[in-house]
Amino acid sequence: METKIDSRHAKVSAPPTVQFDPARHLEFSPPSTILPMKDLGYDSTALSPVAVTEPFPLLSHEGVLQHRRELFSDDVLDNCLSHTYPGSVQLRGMAPRYAPFIHQFWHSPELLKIVSDLAQVELVPAMDYEISHANVQLGPGGIDAVRKTPIEPPAATATEENGDSEESAPVENPDRKEEIIKWHKDSHPWVCVVMLSDARHMVGGETELLKADGSSLKVRAPQMGGAVLLQGRYITHTAIPATNMPERITIVTSFRPKDPMLLDETTNANVRNKSQLSELYYQWTTYRLEVLAERARLTLASLQERYRENVKKADAQGEEGFCRMETINVPEMEKWANEQMKYLQQTLYEMRPLTA
Prior knowledge:
Order of helices and strands: EHEEEHHEEHHEEHEEEEEEEEEHH
Number of domains: 2
Shape: elongated
Radius of gyration: 23 Å
CATH class of the largest domain: Mainly Beta
Number of strands: 17
């Protein structure tokens, strides 16, 4: 279980002074390559044939700065910081209360169109709690240095390690062997990973993907403001520690399919031990009930339309109320009901007590 740090109540943040503006805060260019699942040796999932994109530009410099401004505010650091691995800390659950701009950004139609087009399926944020989860790789200053993180990213300096001259040695992770995160599959179908640090001379930092044959494939890390989109629920992967950087800050926003009728295998497996459970479970339960309610509404509408068609075919007067044609396919309805009960059972299972 994680260790919460400085988890005292902080004052409510002031109203946002910066509103999301796609012309100012987005700087998108399509990735040069989109890798399909088959290239990793896997079949396409029920959601998409896409496995992962090459890095692509996403945030403008202003967009990077505003993300950093909200992420490293006192409110976020006081309430949302967890120490879950020896080499890094995480910031979670800050939007919308402590990070209104970030909330606007990741819910904007412009951003959602970008990720949906790349994933080849319409996506929405999994939950507000899963917007802009930040991973901060610790340097020699440890956790105390996180509170001194500047809004303007420190400039990376070249070193002899990559063939360039060196003016001043950048800060490196004191233990390069420490994992940022273990091999895992994500809790949510899709993740968008964005770099908020100057990564021009970064050594390491790639995302490593496990292929079906047991070998692995490294996807290079994005540059500052750049992103990678990954169908992370279905691909085992890890993050390689980075060196030769003054800092390494990435954010992860998780997505699920917008269509409630599509497969939804979202879990809380990797996030329960690093979240405020009272808030996480509220968001989790309400999203699941919204999906169930929409599935029921769509199924109802389909049955009503089928009934009307049957009345037209079977009743000479075309009047409802005594249709002699079968509308309900009982095995079909049983299958649908069992799927919804399984969905409800999984909803409850994902809120089971944490183990020590």
